[in-house]
Amino acid sequence: MTRKSHNLFLLLGFSLLLTVCNPLHAQEESPPPATSPTYVLRESELNSKTFAIKYDLDVNGQVEERIPNNETRKFEIKSDAHLKYSDRHLPSAGRNEAALRSVRYFDQHQTNVTIGERKSELLLPKQDRLFVVEGRNYELIYYPPSVLLSAQVLEQLRIPFDSLASLGLLPQTAVKQGDTWKPDTWALQLLTGVEAVLKYECVCTLSKVDGNVAFVTFEGNVSGGRYGGSTVVKFRGQYEFDLDKKYLRDLVVTQNEQSSISPVSPGLDVAANIHFTRTPQSSHPQLTDTLAATIPLDPDPVRLLLSFTSPWEARLLHTRNWHVIPGKYVLLRLMDSGSLITQGTMMGLPKDQPGKHVPEEQFQKDIVRSLGDKLTKVVSAEEIETDDGRFLYRVVATGNSNGREMHWIYYLCTHPDGRQVSFVFSTEAELLEALNERDLHLIRTIQWPK
Q1: By the 8 A CB rule, do 231 and 327 touch?
Q2: Cα separations (Å) of 288 from 124, 142, 167?
Q3: Tens digits of residue pLDDT in 93-150
Q4: Which run of H or E residues covers position 25?
Q5: Fewer Cβ atoms within 10 Å of its own Cβ: the N or the C terminal residue of the chain?
């Protein structure tokens, strides 16, 4: 060993000896810093747990709709919704949004709406109170376990910051006070209803822990498309997480939304205040073990169809791509990936004698007359076979409207007792392939309930 290294060894040994022999010096050493506690904000083993939820929503702002001559008009809108429901959680069907599944029963569902001078009160029918709710393809879908849902009821069920979707705001890993995290895109889509996200930002912060409650603040915005229109949603809020019982128990959020007019929805410039509470529930008389056992992980596609009964008693079953707009004439608009593929119009016709219907020749003459100079030719006319006595007749015509090549597809539909309706679908020639005979699939479902 060299002299230099030997001296260093002696100095080190002398230093250690002083430390051991001098208690005062040992006490003056600062202790290692204490680590901040971490918290797990996750709801584990959700399957079969039941929560009672009280949800309140207040909306104020303006709604804009399109009127003839491509003009628009605006109305003041005020709305408040008061919901009480129970969620029994179901087994996960996968990752991300597919893990969020429940069967839900509404004990109360009331919405009061004022648009301009028009006031209305919306209540869920007593027979429409039970639904499966689950994340699927970046949206929260609803469907009844045993019957088909109507489009009108579905619109009442869609709410911002649904209590089930809000579980997507929880962090994936343990966090400390002051830590921040960013929820996944799918969670923001479920919370805001934005279909095609172009830009988003959201930050959650564990702001404080008080006893057994963790307080989390969050703020963000999502911009993109919905129903073929542009939309921007901004939000700011806070939720409370019970650390002992491991559940999100309270959420308050303010949301601002600006949406343009789309082919199937009005424009919106509204502010919403949302508050819900969740309380563990031992059980609910409607949400039984037997019911939960009957709900498959992957529902039959038929269960996801919507039903619509027209003023003329004819009923249609349709996929959720079709948007039904009731009125003097019923409008049927098919959306696909944010684009309008076709618009259909359903009209009632006078009832004929049993076994009779509008003659085919007369139906074609009416088509030629209605299209006028826009018509180029009638491409085809055929009767569609049925197995229940209905008469279905289809006519396809081509022509030009506003400089665009168009296809018009007409249907005459008649019940054996003489009740009848007609349809016309207008589609640009370049969208005919995208239509892919979905108009025909829709018409084949027409029924006249007894």
Answers
A1: no
A2: 21, 19, 23
A3: 999 999 999 999 999 999 999 999 999 999 998 888 999 999 998 899 999 998 899 9
A4: helix 23-27
A5: C
